[in-house]
Amino acid sequence: MAVMTSRFADGLAVGPNLVESAESAIRRALSGLSGPADLVCFFICGEDGEDVARAGRRAMELAGDAAVIGCSATGVIGDAQGIELTPAVSAWAASLGDARVKTFALESLRAEDRFVVVGLPEREADDQVAIMLADPYSFPTDAFVEHSGEVLGNLPIIGGLANGLQGRGSVRLFADGEVYTEGAIGVMISGPLQVSTVVSQGCRPIGPTMVVTRAEDNLLLELAGQPALARLEDIVSALNEEDRELVAAGLQIGIAMNEYAERHERGDFLIRGVLGIDPEREAVAIGDVVEVGRTVRFQVRDAETADEDLYELLDAHVEEGGRAHGALLFSCNGRGSAMFGTPDHDALALRDTLGPIGVAGFFAAGEVGPVGGHNHVHGFTACVLVFSTAT
What we know:
By secondary structure, the protein is of the alpha+beta class. The protein has nine helices and 27 strands. It has helices at 18-31, 49-62, 141-146, 149-152, 228-237, 241-250, 303-321, 336-340, 345-354; strands at residues 8-14, 39-45, 67-72, 75-78, 81-84, 88-94, 100-111, 114-118, 127-134, 157-161, 173-175, 178-180, 184-190, 194-200, 203-205, 210-216, 219-223, 226-227, 252-256, 269-278, 283-286, 295-301, 323-332, 358-364, 367-371, 374-378, 382-389. The protein has a seven-stranded mixed beta sheet. Helix 7 (303-321) runs parallel beside helix 9. The protein starts with 7 loop residues before the first strand and ends with a strand. Residues 1-5 have low confidence and may be disordered.
């Protein structure tokens, strides 16, 4: 059943006939609105790319005059639940009042020794947020997002990397009647609207904060004047057995987003993976390039920490952000059953904290969202776009 609201609603349909599921999900979402839809988003999990494309075309037909975007995925979210690796369609519809909605399609072109992205709408003064869905196999999402501030200023971008059950070649993107097999699509939302983002990276710090005193590309050579590997070994040796197991399962590092903060605790860092060590150079390789002088802190992630982090951030949003009416949820495909033992965890967390509002989304192959005022591509996160009114 659809979640009934006046301005936002979702629908979910599970079944092997994707066209029928698309019809059901879209109609449920649209029927939950008290007026015409201005924006429709949908997400499709299916075995065959062409079946997904047919379902997407049908979904776009049913969206009527609304702006519409969608993508394929390995799992979808709607009706306060997640559906993984099973044919299903989730849909989300929004009536946005006087806000303006403009869809776009991005293409990556090679120009000499670099890529140029074309198709982004002109920036307007009252732009509120951009939602982006990208094909991870053909679009340079990391580079585009990391440099988005040069073109978009401080405009938040939120969304995720699409995928398909067959991997490369099975991704389908949808925007206003068109089907794309590469690139990225999205929507720019502008005008009188209260939106906010929540990015839960699900980690907690271990050991002290340290300043990077020597680095080369993505290798940390010295931390606080000592060889980086020696620093890491000291930290791990002081941990209890449970935390050592978490380190072995996948150590992370947090890069402080505000160098001037008096303290750096959970949520103050951009999380990146630790990729390995170089014993000869006593270095630690990480999934980013960090300049000398930046503050870092090693991190671990587990289900308990990820659960706590998401609930804390959503509770804080409720206290500060007014009354939520609708939300889009982009959850990593490494969360769900793999992390929590259930695909419903993140969807239920939103219902528990924000209430029975219209929420839909998908399990992404990477998530996009702002941390510390800058847009980044993440892994193992839950990125949420919340539509609210002031309390």
